[in-house]
Amino acid sequence: MMEFTAEMIAGFLGGEVVGDKNAKVHTVSSIEGGKAGSLAYLTNPKYEPFLYTTGASIVLVNADFTPAQPLTATLIRVADAGACVLKLLEMYNAAKPRRTGISTRASIDEKASVGEGCYVGDFTVIEEGVRIGRNCQIYPQVFIGKGSTVGDDTILYPGVKIYEGCVVGNRCILHAGAVIGADGFGFMPNAAGGFDKIPQLGNVLIEDDVEIGANTCIDRAKTDSTIIRRGVKLDNLIQIGHNVQVGCNTVSSAQTGIAGTSKVGANCFLGGQVGVADHVTIGDRVKVGSKSGIDKNVPDDEVRLGYPALPGMQYHRASAVFKRLPEVEKQLRELEKEMRELKQQKQ
Fold it and tell me: Yes or no: is domain 4-95 CATH 3.40.50.410?
């Protein structure tokens, strides 16, 4: 178990210790759930009350923070507590021991190549023609299909399935159960009232520094490639249809579905349970609120909310009216009654 003192942490972060410089921590916690031996952090003022009751041994705070009550925890003042927490988490993660070696219970075709420094876990299957880069971590029960490529320093967690001919870039992370390259959802009605399957002959191309959540599915293209560009971050339980393109550094929360041949631009934010219809183009830097439905093209830098999705301010105005509908209906009925009475008087 790795331990760090307040003095060591302050030195690494360029911070100032207020309290016991020899206080030790071996893990990180939230401020409300902090226990002895943990390092917590205060980045949001609404959590300040927990600072005075936390059991954490050390708490990171911004340099301009002044406590309003006595403390038991040691403080480390830093220029930006949020950024420093990220640095510490990265340092702690890098210090964790890496798995090494290739399991004798893995099945690796003789015509596949596995780079230096890779870990391959039990019951993993690596088929003919697969090329895996250096320093990859491939956990148990991963399947990598014929002719696929995996770049350097990529992590494939247990149960990841990569169908034949797909490409995964460098420094990618695919979490448990992710499926890359299953057939796109393509069927053609036939004369008998059923459906004929449309062959899906393309692949999936995932560029560098992409992270894909657990049980997310990215379908192979009908022709050419379904493309996930550099730096994309996809949450758990997302469905990406055939021939979709997702632009660089776009982020999407859980349960989003993007239908076939749609394009999502760069630096977009899609909330949870967003639905994007087929053949829709979403521009760069677009923000889409949770549970919104996109059925038309969206220009760059727009905000969309609701179903069907509306521009942000239009949605908020419509939402305000919707909340008042019972009252508005009552007023309308009263006006109708008054109009009838006025007509009767004129007659």
Answer: no
